[in-house]
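quick one, 236 residues, struct below
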Amino acid sequence: MRIFNVVAMALALGAGAGAPALAQADEGHITVTGNGSAEAAPDMASVSLGVVTEAATAAEAMAANSAALAEVMATLTGAGIEARDIQTSGLSLNPAYEDNYQGGPEGPKVRGFIAQNNVTVRVRALDSLGGVLDAAVGQGANNLYGLSFGLQEPEPKMDDARRDAIADARRKAELYALAAGVTLGEVVSISEQVNYGGPMPEMRAASFAKDSGVPVAEGELSLTASVTVVYDLNDD
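---
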């Protein structure tokens, strides 16, 4: 059985200096990495918002914050957001110092306390997203720090991306085998390169939410998959 140096051959085919190796081979085997993607329109959004309040004492700051956030959450519920889709994501209480501190042995003077309470909200009806944001801000949410889009059921699209990745791996393996004067045999193994953060959406051309309120570009998601496939090689 011959040993095929497919990595060196990839460079000869113009893979380019510094490019990652697409394939490698040992005795009678070739290993390739295939990448695939599938596009989809999002059908849900996650919004991170909250309330920041300042008062002379810590108790007053927290009380004012709790009252304001309760109003925001009531507004969200009234807009059709279910309780399971509202989750506290951050709560803090810190001293606030005078802005004109010039230094000195006494240190900065505390002028009061700042309370902050943030929630993450899942919006499952995207046509209401702009109105939900508008209502939350109008009711007292003064900290909006994150908005992302996703799919409620991503697996069907992820499976499309996986099939695309397998086809890409096969294409690369056939290219290298042909250039090396051999043919591909059976698949020895397939392993998926896991993205522990979940499918990463890529924003594409935008379309705007149609309801009244804050204009929001939903865009398009691109879900990606990567697989490593090992094939047998047969001498011609």
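Residues 6-39+153-195+223-235 form a domain with the Translation Initiation Factor IF3 fold (CATH 3.30.110.170).
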